[in-house]
Amino acid sequence: MKESTEKLQEELNNTKIETYLDSHDFEDFDSLNFPITLKNLLESRSLKPTDIIKTTPLSKSYVYAVLSGKKAPSRDKIISICIAIKADLTDCNSLLKSASYRFLHPKSKRDSIIIFSLNKGLSLAEVNIELERAHLELLD
Question: 73 in the Ramachandran plot: left (φ > 0), alpha (ψ -120 to 50) or beta?
Fold first, then answer.
């Protein structure tokens, strides 16, 4: 059974680091990998890298470099990819997590617009219009 984060944090605070590290399996969390997570998401939706290329300003070489792990995309580029493939909020946050980025949070004005846009299936151009209306930084 998986332990809660709170329980793990409490244990980490109250034990020696060596004991803690020896008593837990970190494979699931440490194996998070953006290229693999993105490839799995594309496969589950029967999509191809060209679907990202067609609907974002990202170049073909950049998309393939990201998928091969040669390039690490920014948080905004990951969000743009999510919008391009019509990912839902759960999938977008999963991709962000796999790249060690902060998840989309409704307490952030910019993130709120992006969450709304993901939920409504807006295009990247439509998302940028909404961001521009709010005087916020546009997505790549």
Answer: beta
CB-count burial class (<10 Å; 0-12, 13-18, 19+) for 27: exposed
In which residue are the tokens 């990201």 written? 66
Domain boundaries of the chain, sorted by first residue: 32-133
Widest distance between CA atoms in the chain: 53
Q: Flag whether the pTM goes above 0.70.
A: yes
Using CA atoms, how far residue 57 sits from 9, 31, 46, 89, in Å, is 41, 29, 21, 21
Per-residue pLDDT 10s for the chain (140 aa) are 456 778 888 888 999 999 988 887 765 554 458 999 999 999 999 999 999 999 999 999 999 999 999 999 999 999 999 999 999 999 999 999 999 999 999 999 999 999 999 999 999 999 999 999 999 999 97
Determine the Cα–Cα distance for residues 87 and 17; give it in Å rounded to an integer. 38
